[in-house]
């Protein structure tokens, strides 16, 4: 099984961190050094401070928040993977702040830092990709600095002991001030890294869409609610978590789904959405030193279906084909209708072997697909088998750009059709070589 965002391990010495401009590299390492210092001081304070040690209730609250954070990340990992890449040159907003700020109101700073480490470690392994560990280290560092600043505001306002949930108008003002400090510090640190890493970037571009910062504001507000419930009515926290997950999926996923549009006949992505997604995935693959697979498939009998049963029946068959293809691909793969009876499947992170395995599953399913349709004479009919020809190509093995990748897959598809249809042909950097086939469908190299 392929995990969304998983990529090949790259040794630290080969991280793109070291290719940053010197000012950016110094800035990033400086922020991380400060975060390490704050962590050491927080741990020392927990061990030998005015109230040494951690209370059992605080360990319980930490466990609840850590589990909730991990479950939140897991349920939304496909969404977050795409959102982060779309925000590659502007601040990436997420709801991790919800659990971290709740922790600030319930836990000593040392456990808040531990919560940040748990969240970003899980993100590194499971969501975004192992080879961008340096990005997650920096993001975790900004969270630690922001949390330290917010904790200082809470203490300065007189909220010295946990839990520090607002119980009066004054304490509410202090908590709001702490949340504002958290947001401002985190936002400023990220903007600084973006501007120093991309000297050509404008300040306006680096700021991104400020309306998206409402996601962070909402997260901080929900964090206050979670902390209040955990302190007084902990059994209600799971109910609130379900609400958070639902809102997350409903509010953030449509940034890609609704704006992109859906093909009305098949329910698949439109050509415009697919064309915009390919460069994003190629950029991600370059960052992660990963791969992107592409399948182009063309139905072999589609014209015959239209001529025999009518265009409404053809539309019904096309929708059934789309559903079959989506059933055989992975979460996070993109299936689009790019022509009349031509589909494209984008497979981020897939090797050639994995692309061909998926293609074979789709090919077998379409060969045995049965579709009930209404004919032009208002009679019912059953279409048995809607075979297709496949062209496969993998970035960067056979192509370095979107146009080259599409051309390679199209050429492989053409070779498959010329070789007898209902076949899978994989593109190669060299001119295509077509082998002799047996009667059964085979997988060839082009």
Automatic annotation (TrEMBL):
The keyword Transit peptide does not apply. Residues 290-429 form the GGDEF domain. It comes from the Bacteria. Residues 425-446 are annotated as: Disordered. Keywords: Membrane, Transmembrane, Transmembrane helix. The chain crosses the membrane at residues 24-47, 99-125, 137-157, 169-195, 207-229. The keyword Transmembrane applies. InterPro entries: Diguanylate_Cyclase, GGDEF_dom, Nucleotide_cyclase, Rev_trsase/Diguanyl_cyclase. NCBIfam families: GGDEF. This is Diguanylate cyclase (GGDEF)-like protein.
